[in-house]
Amino acid sequence: MPEVIRGSRRSNSFPVRPAESEPNVTTTPTSPVHDRRVTFEQNREETSNSLPTARTFSPRASESNRRHSSHYRRSRDISEEERDVYYDSRAATQREYRRRGSTLQSYYSQHPELLPQLPFTFRHGFKRWKLAGYIALMIFDACIVPIILYYAMTFGGNVQGYITFAVVTAIWGGPTYVEFAIRSLRLIKKENFFKPLGANERWAFDITNWMLVLTIAVVTSLLIVGAAPHEVFLRVLSMPGPAILYCLAGPIFLISLYSARGWKAPFRISSTAKGEKVLPGIYYIAEDIVAVNAGGGRPFREGWAARYNASPIFRKMVRDLSWFWSIPGLVVAVACTVVICIHPVPKAVAYGIGWGVPFLWAGIWAAITVPWVQSAMARERHGWEDDSAIEAGKEEEGAPPANAPGPLAEKASEASTLGGHEDDTTETNEKKKTDNVDDAGESAARHSEATTV
């Protein structure tokens, strides 16, 4: 596995000298150096031609060396195929986190020309299928199972209500509780890999974990209260869906309001310490879910913070998404509550609305969010590259004329040449004057000698 230096490889940052192309020669890895503002992918594309493409061996190489050569070529081909996924798949690992020398934030602060990259991707690897599977299982368990069980057992099997909801309550939330227990255990551990930035003590829960605590407590209370009597309270049992929206969209709205007003954090909010400026709500939700549930850890938190601080387009996207999810979520929750509580709506219909509409709305909003984020990040990348081109042009305009391209360079060379000729002319004139003085002295001496004779 190639060495990882703060999310970048040395071979992608420096030209490979002949002495360094040999695999047996160990070199000290260093941080990449860039002379202009570029994206991580652009930097890799520009320097990919400098990678070694072949190895030469002596004709007398042994069979073991030949086998080693073929193995090296296969490994090299695999590494070249994985070059596009290298940063995302290997930077956010616990092994790299333990061995690295500095954080991604400090690295990108030293290289402001780079667009900070997020050490996580859904394009490659098993993480995307794992996280997508968890989300699909949680939605199926939290939304589809209660609806199917209720209508099938009530209208298809004529089962009494308290028996039906005893089954629903026993089954509901199983994957959610397991995932909540796993993420809580990760945050309780002494190891700091999954914890928020700046929180090194044990039991360092992030804001998403506290929101899940509130959500699970409220939903469990509603299920217990509604299913406890022999005659179940069906309208109360229809409220878990809107309650989930209240418990998730409500805190996101409050956090986003704090951020918009510029208020300070009254307590620690994930990676934001008490007394610091609050960021939009979606910032913390995305950071916590990818860092803990998806296993991105602190490297993702550091890259996420560096990206947010460096890119105005990214900040605007996070702010807009916070309002996009919080305000409509509260509106849908209030609308579902009104429909469930008013008596003209039948209880069976209210139950389907309460359990189905919130999750249907979340699916529609997620389908809108995915292309929105992809478009915004593509626009961000192109804007960053355009800015780098503008800055490069400004640097060229402000450079000395001798280094400028085109006519300016010719004029500069002419000026330097003229300056050199002027110096030569001055020296020649001085020599001529000296020679004239010497000639005048010699002629005067000859004239005096002739007079004496």
From TrEMBL:
The keyword Transcription does not apply. The keyword Disulfide bond does not apply. Residues 399-410 have a biased composition (Low complexity). Residues 33-47, 420-436, 444-453 have a biased composition (Basic and acidic residues). It comes from the Eukaryota. The chain crosses the membrane at residues 131-153, 159-182, 203-228, 243-260, 323-345, 351-373. Residues 48-61 have a biased composition (Polar residues). Keywords: Membrane, Transmembrane, Transmembrane helix. Residues 1-77, 392-453 are annotated as: Disordered. This is Uncharacterized protein. It comes from Phialocephala subalpina.
